[in-house]
Design brief:
homodimer, Rossmann fold, six-stranded mixed β-sheet, 11 strands, 28% helix
């Protein structure tokens, strides 16, 4: 098991066969040293890709993204789930359906921070049905920038998000890939970690 | 001028005498190296305080908080502005009025991550009227934990948030303290930066 798989087994709570709660280090409480390790691992996988910007989405993507950004020495933009009163001009937007919350949200990023010609790494905490990932990809495509790939902390490989991204020709790197969750435990697909 | 005051003068946009937009490095796009500098500065000011936990609020507080957390080697908890479906049990809550958005939000944190006996440093991006800061303080007080103080990135010293916190006996450390904003420029109160 890699360092993240070990942490998921130790601290993750399986709420159902499809819902995993990892609020002790990722989604509510953040373990900074551990997030730095995650960020560096994602950065290492894309270090030859000449990334110029990282795009993530509030809130749980921010911590792994800033550590990857520090390692790659590039700025991080976090897409917003709600419109801001002080951010009204020049917005890129896309619609994202949340299976967890069963609502459609509009996500947005300012076009001045995501421009044509940029080489973008998209980072998020989870990949499940791929809705958030595809929404973030749409923002990058609308900007005319290039998507170098996705850096995902935890992938639910038993859902179809990864395949949707692969079908569009995107590279997907996930630090932990869960093939099954049950009261008996969690099964992972092989995922080689380079940096630890 | 310290490193943050310089950055605010270079990149901040004054939208009105009370509204400053710093979305190029703090509120939408994040400059990771700069945020690390901010986080370390806040951490240094509290390094003798035996902090055991950092509390912030999504989303813009997360980046400075994780870097301060890394420096102090403590976990970071980010309070949520919306209730999560997978976080329903054991919630500490308080109400926060947003002058910018003119709505009252309930903010929350899981009680298991904020416990009696902890020594908490509260970090946020802005201090204006102090509503968010007082809401975060209420979460810590409800948990029976101790508030060691506040670490603020940008303080609008012409508003009354700082005084409200001081009146309650809290220590407030702000990296930049703005006394006035006008089309002619920004005036800062003296704020000594130790770490740079």
């Amino acid at each position: 098991m890699n360092f993240l798989e070990k942490k998921i087994c130790e601290e993750g709570v399986i709420l159902s066969p499809t819902v995993l709660k990892v609020d002790s280090f990722l989604n509510h409480q953040i373990d900074p040293l551990f997030m730095q390790q995650i960020g560096c691992e994602i950065a290492n996988r894309y270090k030859t890709e000449k990334i110029t910007k990282i795009l993530t989405i509030e809130s749980s993507g921010i911590a792994p993204a800033v550590f990857a950004g520090l390692e790659l020495d590039v700025p991080v933009v976090f897409a917003r789930k709600k419109k801001s009163l002080t951010l009204t001009d020049g917005l890129l937007t896309s619609k994202v359906y949340s299976f967890t919350k069963q609502v459609e949200n509009e996500i947005s990023a300012a076009s001045k921070f995501l421009q044509a010609g940029e080489r973008v790494l998209i980072i998020d905490d989870f990949l499940a049905h791929g809705e958030a990932a595809l929404g973030l990809a749409e923002l990058v495509n609308k900007a005319g920038a290039h998507i170098c790939g996705f850096g995902i902390v935890i992938e639910k490989s038993f859902q179809d998000g990864r395949q949707k991204l692969i079908d569009k020709g995107y590279r997907v790197e996930s630090i932990a890939r869960i093939s099954e969750m049950s009261p008996e435990g969690i099964t992972f697909l092989k995922s080689e970690v380079l940096s630890s």
